[in-house]
Amino acid sequence: MALKIKIKKNTLVRKIDGVKKTGFYGKVISNGTKTWEQIAEEASRNTTVHKAEMKVASELLLDAVTAQLKQGFIVDLGPIGKLYPAVTGKWDENADNLQLADMKPKVNYKPGADIDTAIRGAQLSWTTEKETDENTVTDGDNTEPTNPGTGGDIEG
């Protein structure tokens, strides 16, 4: 199955050579969401581990990961990737103007080699307007880039 791509108008205005311009970017159309339980069930197939045990084990792993992130550790999840504690906040020319109250904790993610290779190797295809209408996910669809075309700080 190919990742379906739809063309979206870039509503952000960018200054290029002093001129404000708008443009377009590609967005993946989601096929929906897989729940934690569904992933646990799928991960437990062809093993002797019951899906409930897989779910509990992964929840315990999640508890440990979040505890380490809160303490400022980079968490290396092996083939899954790395999680980096980070913050968002305003930029200011003067360091004295920065306030902790303006900082918000967040997590940056860098995929492991297998995940990165898998997604980079995914087939892409343009979606039709009909497919877009049928497959549009509105509940929790927050995949809209805040600044399309830019990377972001990963290893912050």
What does this structure look like?
With 156 residues, this protein is α+β, with helices and mostly antiparallel strands. It has three domains: 1-29 and 127-142, no CATH class; 34-71, no CATH class; 74-122, no CATH class. The protein has four helices and six strands; from the N terminus they run E-E-H-H-E-E-E-H-E-H. The protein has helices spanning 36-44, 51-70, 113-120, 129-135; strands at 3-16, 19-28, 75-76, 81-88, 104-111, 124-126. The strands form two sheets. A three-stranded mixed sheet has the order 2-1-6, with no helix packed on it.
Provide a concise account of the structure shown.
The chain is of the alpha+beta class and about 160 residues long.
Top keywords for this entry?
three-stranded antiparallel sheet, 4 helices, 156 residues, flat, alpha+beta, three-stranded mixed sheet
Q: Secondary-structure blueprint of this entry?
A:
Elements: E1 3-16, E2 19-28, H1 36-44, H2 51-70, E3 75-76, E4 81-88, E5 104-111, H3 113-120, E6 124-126, H4 129-135
Parallel strand pairs: 1-6
Antiparallel strand pairs: 1-2, 3-4, 4-5
